[in-house]
From TrEMBL:
SUPFAM superfamilies: Alpha-L RNA-binding motif, Pseudouridine synthase. It comes from Maricaulis virginensis. Residues 16-76 form the RNA-binding S4 domain. One of its GO terms (biological process) is enzyme-directed rRNA pseudouridine synthesis. Keywords: Isomerase, RNA-binding. Responsible for synthesis of pseudouridine from uracil. The lineage of its organism: Bacteria, Pseudomonadati, Pseudomonadota, Alphaproteobacteria, Maricaulales. PANTHER family: MITOCHONDRIAL RNA PSEUDOURIDINE SYNTHASE, RIBOSOMAL LARGE SUBUNIT PSEUDOURIDINE SYNTHASE D. Residues 48-80 are annotated as: Disordered. GO terms for molecular function: 23S rRNA pseudouridine(1911/1915/1917) synthase activity; RNA binding. It comes from the Bacteria. The active site is at 140. This is Pseudouridine synthase. Its EC number is 5.4.99.-.
Length: 330
């Protein structure tokens, strides 16, 4: 592999996107590698971090990290026995098309500038090459619950299309500060990204926006209050009809009922005392359409720390009618 290089942008390359500049200079380097190197801050322009779609100007200097030689396959770190056992312990369902995990809070789905251990990197435990599972959708690092990966390119493409066309149904459980009123309804509006670092979604922030604002996207969430702990907190079931970054967290905070433990999207209501301050947001249920037969329905149990908070507030999953909850979210 080559060492670190510093290359100057030529006048003919003025205005090029970083990823396309790399493609012309190093055609053997996959676009996915370029994006990953940008996220990690290993590709820099005049010493600053950039994204794949950033533009370069003539005369700027591009830091190029060590790259594989043409024909050389980049080495992948070998998973430890502990990591292999860990990721396999998260599996809650598997068939010929997909693997479903109950992702724990704190485990990122993808790598970022400060994230070395993540679910995507652990998928080598299930195969390599075309046999290696591929990500289909995402969950925030601090959100727990159902997450699926596709087995092979064809299955991954079909599953990704189901998410993109909103044919999947997702149900999240959250503990909200206070009690939303009305107790059942919709939250909708426009939101946009307010910034981030190196394309790292975990460090991005979403803000309210108006229709027509640059980068604004419409977001719609259905919700229903499942149970209440006085006026201090409530158990809320949520269905994101759209799939924007941090959508559920932004919407509940905008109502004045932020999710317990959310330090990014807050409200003026105090949190109940003596509760673990982890983000109490859990992807409870995922319904996936199948080409033949009934949809596949996957559910993930609450992680033990979150279950403890639910118990402390008097919220017991075995005492609710989940069918009724699903009907209220439909």
């Amino acid at each position: 592999m080559s060492g670190v290089q510093t290359l100057k942008v030529e006048p003919s390359e003025d205005g090029s996107r970083v990823d396309r500049w790399f493609k012309r200079r190093f055609p053997h380097v996959p676009a996915t590698m370029v994006q990953k190197l940008c996220r990690k801050g290993q590709i820099r322009v005049d010493g600053g971090r950039v994204k794949g779609d950033s533009r370069v100007s003539a005369g700027q200097e591009v830091r190029v990290p060590p790259l594989p030689e043409p024909g050389e396959k980049p080495a992948r770190p070998t998973l430890s026995a502990e990591d292999t056992a860990f990721v396999k312990s998260l599996v809650i369902y598997e068939d010929d098309e997909l693997i479903a995990f109950n992702k724990p809070a704190g485990l990122a789905v993808q790598g970022g500038s400060k994230t070395q251990r993540h679910l995507d990197g652990l998928l080598d435990a299930f195969g390599t090459g075309l046999e290696r599972p591929r990500l289909v959708h995402r969950l925030d690092k601090d959100t727990s619950g159902v997450l699926i990966v596709g087995k092979g390119p064809r299955a991954t493409a079909r599953l990704a299309k189901a998410f993109q066309s909103h044919r999947t149904k997702k149900t999240y459980w959250a503990i909200a500060l206070g009690v939303p009123k009305p107790k059942q309804g919709e939250i909708k509006g426009f939101m946009k990204k307010a910034g981030g670092a190196g394309g790292d979604a975990e460090r991005e922030t979403m803000v309210a926006a108006s229709h027509g604002d640059p980068g604004a996207s419409h977001a719609l969430t259905r919700y229903t209050v499942v149970a209440e702990a006085g006026q201090k907190a409530s158990w809320v079931a949520l269905r994101p009809v759209t799939g924007r970054t941090h959508q559920l967290r932004v919407h509940l905070a905008a109502m004045g009922h932020a999710i317990l433990g959310d330090r990014k999207y807050t409200c003026d209501r105090p949190a109940p005392e003596d509760l673990d301050r982890r983000l109490c947001l859990h992807a409870r249920r995922l319904e996936i359409p199948r080409d033949k037969g009934a949809p596949l329905v996957l559910t993930a149990d609450l992680p033990k720390p979150t279950q403890k908070i639910f118990d402390t507030l008097g919220f017991f999953a075995n005492e609710i009618d989940e069918t009724r909850v699903e009907d209220e979210l439909a």
